[in-house]
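>> received
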Amino acid sequence: MTSPRRRFQTFDDPSHRKGPERIAALRAAMREAGVDAFVVPRADEHQSEYVPANAERLAWLTGFTGSAGTAVVLADKAALVVDGRYTLQAPEQVDTDVVTVVPLAETTPDAWIGEHLGADKVLGYDPWLHTADGVARLERAAAKAGASLAPVANLVDAVWAGRPRQPAGRVVLQPIEHAGETAEAKLDRIREKLATAKVDALVISDPHNLAWAFNLRGSDVAHTPLALGYAIVPCEGRPGLFLSSTDLAPEARAGLSALADLNPRISFEDALAALGGRPSKIRLDAGTAGAALKEGIVAAGGSADVGPDPITGMKAVKNAVEIDGSRAAHKRDGIAVTRFLAWLQREGCNGVGEIEAVEALEDFRAESGLLREVSFPTISGSGPNGAIVHYRVTTATDRRAGPGELFLIDSGAQYADGTTDITRTVAIGTPSAEMRDRFTRVLQGHIAIARAVFPKGTTGAQIDAFARRPLWEAGLEFDHGTGHGVGAFLSVHEGPQRIAKTGTVALEPGMILSNEPGYYRAGAYGIRIENLILVEERTIEGAERPMLGFETLTLVPIDRSLIVFELLSQAETAWLDVYHDRVRTTLGPDLDPDTRAWLEDATRPIGEAGA
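>> returned
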């Protein structure tokens, strides 16, 4: 008898809600360290969104498990600042008698500090967990309050009993048949960028960039194949690679040793100080380099040039091999998700549970034999839970979908040839007229992005409103970005590209993004429709400048029972019919007869009789 497959997700409730004990312990450590306040960001030393267990300081301290947020703890009060994705989740997880949840739309952590810290107080922070720009903001906030700023060793670590160890997972190479470019060629391109910027070396502080530059993949972080560590890439000479893990596969050790000097992570600070002591002008990534790196370079006599890591933009533009891999991954994933949706429709009348749905979807994906991981914990929300944008089901919150409810499931997979991310909202039974209206408006916004054609140089911020207009026309809105960048067997959230009000980076051919407008009625239901899209060149007769558009990569049907067809324009109807025809013809031959028959019905043209 074979043992059951290990699942990539658990459903334990990580929120402790133990009241003031942990905040009290932190305050005792603050008094001992001589500080009156301490900042606890949701970050590790690489400023990553997805962090290892030993860096989940914010969750341990407050109970809040979201992927973004900042706590500020004073002697007599504490605040947790969260963005619009978490304004419903955070109050459910934290003890609001001890920690006040503050929406980011109302105030920033810096503004809250400036208002509440008080004169002559000392604000403590861990310089590894804040960028140089972040520290500058803290300095301004402290100055506004008439207070001062002090770097200290992390005070949460000092009181966290049983803190997990630093991960040291297996490190392997990403083969050329998936990477599409050798690490040697990438390093040569990186050096060209450094020469243009007139810097002597680059410190790679982002593990995603580390993975891309050296064609390596690790297992130090859940759901994202990262090896934690740093690299120093000089304009001339061999790079130095400083990995937290010593568990390198033999071929990885041989391949990386041919590229760089391999060193343990513990020796990184000494190597950085030696580089700074030459002296040298060293580029630090403004987004991921902790302020401690700048302080170390300056103390050694070097010059810290804080700016963009050129790898971030290079990594965002996928090469032809990565694009073909993504298409293959999305076809494979589309088969699994389509099989799941057919199952969900069959079982929906019996009241499918949220955990049951997560497990079923993961099993369908695993049947390909190529699933490496899920790309993030599946958001499986029925009824009112679907209105929590980043809801994570636990055994305590699991509920079964009832008739007339919506079921929102946002999920993704990691395959060696690509990363996927898809959201579908489906009706269990007969949806209300309001649900159908809202779903149709979200669909119209989704189609507007998918059909967008725009001149080269256009940013995500310039097209974000396309997705919102149908909702705005009804006085509605959603409080998250329309789209984020996606990696190639890397992070499901990858910059610098995004479709959002804050998306200031120009979109380029080869970038992959999500297209995911939504609508959320608190306490009732949530709606989101998400496909991944590829930026591509577009030829338009008579165009006076280069134009771009999108190829939709995700291949999964959209629930027709939720669409008010009369609201769709002729162009929107045509797009949906063409998309569904592509889904049907691409996936159909690889499906079993029952699922193929379900797909045929689910993708019928809108104008067909009985639609």
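>> The chain has three domains: 21-159, 172-316, 320-601.
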